[in-house]
Amino acid sequence: GNGEFSLLAGANYQTEIIRNIDMILGVEGYASNQWDYKAISQMYAEFKWGPVSLILGKRNIDFLNARNQQIPYMDFRNIRPFPYFSFGFYDYTNIPFLKGFLQFKATFVQGILNGDRDPIGVDKPLYHFKSLYAKTGNFPLQLFIGMNQGVIFGGTMQNGTKIPVDFYNTYLINASEKVGAVLPGEGENKPGEHLGFVDMGAILDLKKVYFDFTFQNIFTDYSGFIQSDDHNLIFNLQLKGRHPISSLNYEYGYTV
After folding, report:
1. Please, which of 46, 144, 198, 215 could form a disulfide with 135 given CB 3.0 to 4.6 Å?
2. Of 126, 116, 109, 119, whose CA–CA distance to 162 is shortest?
3. pTM
């Protein structure tokens, strides 16, 4: 058969542009002789001030990187990131004056899905994502609660009709008369295709054992926010040191 040669290469540059504010520039591209295909997979500028980051461009980043288990419903690690604007505290950050006993993280993302897709369906729709989490600290047992929401909206349909964009109601998961004028169902339902979850749980990290438990309440356009009957349970147990069995994972999902 025919051999394939693939190349992935990139570079980044970091410098302090103002006191305590760093700028990170990055670029990455890949090519394959088998597909005769090449593309710029990442090209971005990131500005960091302590725990706060602002990102412009295409960067391969997992916005749920502070979670302790793999989330099956949302995963942003894609070989072809989409161009976006993002602002947030991507890792848990201490709330001032609480001495580490309470931490939070939050993310806001707005971008456009500009990749080639076949069949197209809706061309170049917009994408929005946001998250907010709080977690206790300074104790072996840590409790957390938070939410994520992602939505695909807008774009151009195959017949050339442009779907109206209502940022306010889309962000707040409300019905939109503006979008409903073109897509009647969106006047009663939420505009766009929503997927998210509210989740809560506990983390226990001791000298010889690690355990975490998560309960997720999954919601879409039709299930409503928080009132959804779709649930997911995740258990994770790890024994530290050398053992015949060092970890146990269990996940149970229920949908209606």
Report:
1. 144
2. 126
3. 0.81
